[in-house]
Design brief:
The complex is a heterotrimer of chains A (276), B (362) and C (390). Chain A has 10 helices and 9 strands. Chain A is of the alpha/beta class and 276 residues long. Chain A has a single domain, classed as P-loop containing nucleotide triphosphate hydrolases (Rossmann fold, 3-Layer(aba) Sandwich), CATH 3.40.50.300. In chain A, the strands form 2 sheets. In chain A, strands 5-6-7-3-8-9 form a 6-stranded mixed β-sheet, sandwiched between helices. Chain A has a 3-stranded antiparallel β-sheet with strand order 2-1-4, covered by helices on one side. Chain B has helices spanning 24-32, 47-62, 83-92, 110-123, 171-179, 184-197, 306-309, 320-328, 353-356, and strands spanning 68-69, 98-103, 126-127, 136-140, 153-157, 208-210, 214-216, 235-240, 245-249, 255-257, 285-291, 311-317. Chain B is α/β, with parallel strands linked by helices and 362 residues long. Helix content of chain B is 25%, strand content 15%. The N and C termini of chain B lie far apart (58 Å). Among the domains of chain B are: 1-31, no CATH class; 47-257, 3-Layer(aba) Sandwich (Rossmann fold). Chain C has 13 helices and 4 strands. With 390 residues, chain C is of the alpha+beta class. Chain C has helices at residues 10-25, 34-40, 42-52, 57-66, 71-82, 159-165, 194-202, 206-218, 285-300, 310-316, 319-328, 334-350, 361-371; strands spanning 100-105, 226-240, 247-262, 274-281. In chain C, α7 (194-202) runs antiparallel to α9 (285-300). The chains are: A alpha/beta (276), B alpha/beta (362), C alpha+beta (390). Chains in contact: A-B, A-C, B-C. The A-C interface holds A 148, 159, 161, 163-168, 170-176, 202-203, 205-206, 209 and C 374-378, 382-385, 387-390. Chain C: InterPro entries: PhnI (IPR008773). Chain C: Residues 351-361 have a biased composition (Basic and acidic residues). Chain C: GO terms for molecular function: lyase activity. Chain C: This is Carbon-phosphorus lyase complex subunit PhnI.
């Protein structure tokens, strides 16, 4: 079943002109329009996510993968000009056009984002448990004990020491903070989680454990995910299907195994070779 | 006392020879001569201002709990001393009105007297200390013990208008939260409170949901008074001078203090205490340490403390005008002036036993 | 009625007022005339007028006298009075270039068109108490000056205009509205437009404006301006004649003005100075310069530095607001304090603390058992971890 279907997603920084789209992208070798100077962060991007599936988006920094992820997670950047259609199972119309209320509800319930930067996703003054509880309380939970029990459950699922749940989040290590973000994202049993660069700022050994944990929880809960990373290893580990982006465009897509074993696009080949 | 305050007023003897190019200043100085308030408009504020305050009040009534900005004028009282309340009151008062002012439950408090004096001098109103006789009651930090009716307006002085200020100091961010009824952060605050203290540690200014839409700061009334806001007969007007906002709870509006189902809102407890003057046990009491008149130690456990032994804690009704009535007739209920009985008016009145028991079921 | 902490009727208030007035009149000196304050304590009345937002030197002198020299209280008296006055008309906008300056310095350049005019200032004198003033024989030290009539004052070209013509200074965005807002009639909402910011700063409390501006210089910000102009002079006050429709000058107002460039470039491709502007009633250079720094800081619209955050600055800069709210703490607060006592007692009870502040052993056991599953043992305060968790 298709959970999310996106067509023609576009994010442009700057005034934009008629020639922006033609003058940028893979063939043009840049994402900046030489005519007006606008940056076409991403354009002409189509994708679908099926229920329970993990879609990887890989590319170097500036390829447009984060812009794409932000649109899917219904983030809004007031400095950007955006366009496109996102359809979502069970909702009428284009998700990019919904009012604040609907968007807020969707982001509290159905679609969760794990920010690349922890400071965007967590309030360091709240306790770790409080950060997770916020999602539940925003969704209308009103029993303190129920909230406590659910937070405890989520701490266990994401492998955070439960005895730390009442300590301020600022006292947590980076790996624990990332786990709190994931616990928070999963709090209201969303159907889709968008992870933006989930390994940023983590030691290699910690990265592996966070990713393993996420893969396990994702499968147990059957939640779909979009995982954005510059790291092929992350995408290879988590994603069923993968999109490769460059200069703001999707240059290749397919089953992750196929993309890794038999890359068609020259850029993908370079990427994979450089890793090996 | 001083009927002729102006007799030796140096201004009166100032003659007009100045370097100021017009004589308007002298005219102004002349108009200041007199009993101090001649030359001022009825009810101090000009009609245009009063109309604007009334418009803001009407808007506040139309959108219960929503903070309506208005152009708060500088008043002859310091900001933070009831300038919002007095602007709201003066814009509502007419010469036939009866006005009562209470500060911390007392009509006799200096600041209440000062505000009452301003209204008397400028708006020519009758004043009273009897809650049941007043048309408009201006109050700081209390809602009276006697039930208010649909013919009365309670004007509450407000120091801090936004309950979300507790969790975020930015008004811009908080206005967005109100617009979208996004109160998650306040709920986390309550959650963290219970985590840290075992119960909600908010004394007064208790965050309160109005008509299931806007979170409201009910002004620093004690929690004791919060249940009186719910489904009341009277209009509540909340006015802040310094912060230039007016908001309201119209009659028969749902008002609910934020709390968890299993960590309930509780009011202040006065275990085993009664007013030493009238004997009431169903009113908001305040404690006073007084020098003990009896030589014996008043504390059972504190025998070792010499300093304590000469003081004793006594409780007294905070609402001094109701206390006076109770002293004459200790049995009169809070709805004695109504033709109905058993009116729900917060702790100590029917249907509110749960809140007044003060326990969260532990 | 001994149980009300502060009890007083109107009589008591009047007596307190009379005692206050007695403090002024009790001495042996003669009563200070309002003219004397106006003429001899100009900086005091300037400050009161500036913070009141009301240009009325004689009334300001009266207010200063009545407030026994407290400028904020004096400004408060003026504001309260102004709020009751009918507003008959609004003045026409005046270009600061029309100023007849009695003093003008431009620290940015050694020499400037129109010249540096030192004018009356104590800037370069030694701050020594002048015991001659004890004698009280006023003498005009310039009486003996021998100066020829210098003719009409020269037009001063604004140094900022020169820099602007060269394209070195960023132009502010065109105001989105035709009429400037009036923050005495319309409350400021955040984020504020620049016209509201300037009005609020112009009425700001001198000490607060100075302190906040100083914070930006002191390291809590990035504005270290170069002053292009500091001027004191008179500006005409003009209104439209109700019958002829012509602009007519009805009065003059003395103001202090300051303008500065700030070497912060907004755009990399077209580097231009940021700038700040300050103007305030009366002689008050310190406040005008402080306002300039705050205007420049707020235009940077930062969030991390206090002076760059418009909400922070505007919320704290008004003397009337801070005066009132700080002093309101003297009002009785026993209702709320009773409520606070209730909370702390309940929580101490819950934690099993007895009146001596010690944990009673029995209650402690009970408590820790009950809490063990939902509270951190937290034997030690949490410390930030350096290494990673797992």
């Amino acid at each position: 079943m298709t959970l999310l279907d996106a067509e023609g997603l576009r994010t442009v920084y700057g005034d934009g002109c008629d020639r922006c789209l033609d003058a940028t992208g893979d063939r043009a070798g840049t994402n900046q329009c030489p005519h007006c100077g606008s940056v076409v962060a991403c354009a002409e991007a189509d994708l679908t996510v099926r229920a329970g599936e993990v879609l990887g988006i890989v590319g170097e920094s500036g390829s447009g993968k984060s812009s794409l992820a932000e649109q899917l997670a219904l983030e809004r950047d007031p400095d950007a000009e955006t366009d496109g259609v996102v359809r979502y199972a069970g909702h009428e119309g284009n998700l990019l056009d919904v009012d604040y209320e609907t968007r807020h509800d969707l982001r509290t319930g159905d679609i969760a984002l794990v920010h690349q930067h922890i400071r965007d996703g967590l309030n360091p003054e709240f306790t770790g448990g409080g950060n997770v509880a916020e999602k539940l309380l925003s969704a209308g939970w009103r029993s303190f004990e129920d909230v406590r029990a659910r937070v405890r459950e989520l701490f266990e699922a994401t492998e955070i020491p439960v005895d730390r749940m009442d300590d301020p989040t600022s006292t947590y290590s980076g790996g624990m903070q990332r786990r709190v973000q994931i616990a928070r994202a999963l709090a209201n049993d969303p159907e889709l989680v968008v992870l933006d660069e989930p390994t940023t700022g983590l030691d290699v050994s910690v990265q592996a454990r966070v990713l393993d944990m996420f893969r396990r929880v994702q499968r147990e809960k059957g939640v779909a995910a979009v995982v954005v990373s510059h790291d092929l290893g992350v995408v290879r580990l988590l994603a069923d299907r993968t999109l490769v982006m460059r200069h703001g465009r999707v240059v290749e897509s397919g089953l992750t195994d196929r993309v890794m074993e038999d890359p068609h696009h020259e850029y993908t080949q370079t990427l994979i070779n450089s890793v090996i | 006392m001083t009927d002729e305050r102006t007799a030796d007023d140096p201004v009166a003897s100032t003659d007009g020879g100045t370097t100021v190019p017009t004589d308007s200043v002298d005219a102004v100085l002349d108009s200041l001569d007199g009993d101090g308030l001649s030359g001022y408009n009825y009810a101090y504020l000009d009609e245009h201002t009063k109309r604007e305050v009334r418009r803001a009040t009407l808007k506040a009534v139309a959108v219960p709990g929503h903070q309506v900005p208005y152009a708060s004028r500088p008043m002859p009282l310091a900001r933070g001393w009831g300038t919002g309340g007095i602007q709201a009151s003066l814009s509502l008062l007419g010469p036939d009105e009866t006005f009562k002012v209470v500060d911390q439950g007392a009509d006799e408090s200096v600041n209440a007297a000062n505000i009452r004096r301003l209204a008397e001098n400028t708006a020519d109103v009758e004043t009273t200390t009897d809650t049941t006789e007043a048309g408009v009651v201006q109050t700081r930090h209390r809602i009276p013990e006697e039930v208010l009716t649909d013919e009365q307006i309670l004007v509450l002085q407000v120091p801090i208008t936004d309950p979300l200020r507790k969790v975020d100091s930015s008004d811009a961010a908080n206005r967005r939260r109100h617009a979208h009824k996004n109160y998650g952060k306040m709920w986390v605050h309550l959650y963290e409170n219970v985590v840290e203290w075992g119960e909600i540690n908010i004394a007064s200014r208790y965050p309160t949901m109005v008509a299931e839409r806007y979170l409201m700061d009910p002004s620093p009334i004690p929690r004791w008074d919060v249940p009186k806001l719910d489904d009341a007969e009277n209009l509540y007007v909340f006015a802040a001078g310094r912060e230039a906002r007016i908001y309201a709870v119209p009659p028969h509006t749902d008002v609910e203090p934020l709390a968890f189902e299993d960590r309930e809102f509780t009011v202040e407890r006065f275990p085993d205490a009664a007013c030493h003057a009238c004997g009431s046990t169903d009113t908001y009491l305040v404690e006073v340490s007084e020098e003990s008149e009896s030589p014996q130690t008043t504390r059972e456990e504190g025998g070792g403390e010499a300093a304590d032994s000469s003081f004793e804690t006594r409780y007294a009704c905070n609402d001094s005008s109701f206390c006076e009535k109770r002293r004459e007739d200790s049995d009169i209920p809070k709805d004695h002036h109504l033709d109905r009985e058993g009116v729900d008016w917060g702790p100590g009145t029917p249907d509110n036993e749960e809140a007044s028991s003060g326990g969260a079921g532990e | 009625m001994g149980y009300v902490a502060v009890t007083a009727g109107e009589e008591l208030i009047e007596r307190a007022e009379e005692l206050f007035e007695k403090q002024r009149t009790a001495g042996d000196g003669e009563d200070v005339a309002v003219e004397q304050i106006d003429e001899q304590l100009g900086r005091l009345t300037s400050q009161a007028m500036s913070e009141a937002g009301l240009y009325a030197p004689r009334l300001a002198a009266l207010a200063v006298k009545q407030a026994q020299g407290d400028t904020v209280e004096a400004a408060f008296l003026l504001r309260a009075y102004r709020s009751t006055l009918e507003r008959y008309d609004e003045t026409e906008p005046i270009a600061p270039s029309e100023m007849v300056a009695s003093r003008r310095v431009s620290p940015a350049f050694k020499d400037v068109p129109g010249g540096q005019i030192l004018g009356p200032t104590k800037d370069y004198t030694q701050r020594l108490l002048d015991f001659d003033l004890l004698e009280g024989d006023a003498e005009d030290p310039t009486e003996e000056w021998d100066i020829e009539d210098a003719g009409d004052p020269e037009d001063l070209t604004n140094v900022m205009e020169l820099l602007r013509e060269e394209g070195l200074v960023a132009e502010p965005d065109e105001a989105g509205v035709e009429e400037p807002t009036d923050t005495t009639r319309e409350p400021v909402t955040h984020p504020p437009e620049r016209d509201a910011v300037l009005q609020e700063l112009a009425r700001g409390e001198t000490g607060a404006v100075t302190a906040l501006a100083y914070s930006a210089l002191r390291g809590y910000g990035q504005v270290h301006p170069t002053l292009a102009e500091v001027r004191i002079g008179e500006l005409p006050v003009r209104i439209e004649h109700p019958y002829t429709g012509d602009e007519v000058t009805v009065a003059h107002a003395e103001v202090s003005e300051s303008e500065a460039v700030v070497p912060v470039y907004a755009k990399r491709e077209d580097p231009q100075f940021a700038f700040g502007y300050g103007l305030t009633f009366g002689r008050n250079e310190r406040k005008a310069i402080g306002m300039t720094i705050l205007d420049a800081s707020i235009q940077l619209d930062g969030e991390d530095e206090p002076a760059e955050n418009p909400e922070f600055v505007l919320d704290t800069v008004d003397g009337m607001d801070s005066f009132g709210f700080i002093e309101h703490l003297k009002l009785p607060h026993y209702v709320t304090f009773q409520s606070i006592l209730d909370r702390i007692r309940a929580i101490r009870e819950r934690k099993g603390l007895n009146e001596d502040g010690r944990v009673s052993t029995e209650a402690d056991d009970e408590d820790s058992e009950r809490d063990s599953d939902d509270r951190t043992p937290a034997a030690e305060p949490p410390v930030a971890e350096v290494s990673d968790d797992d």
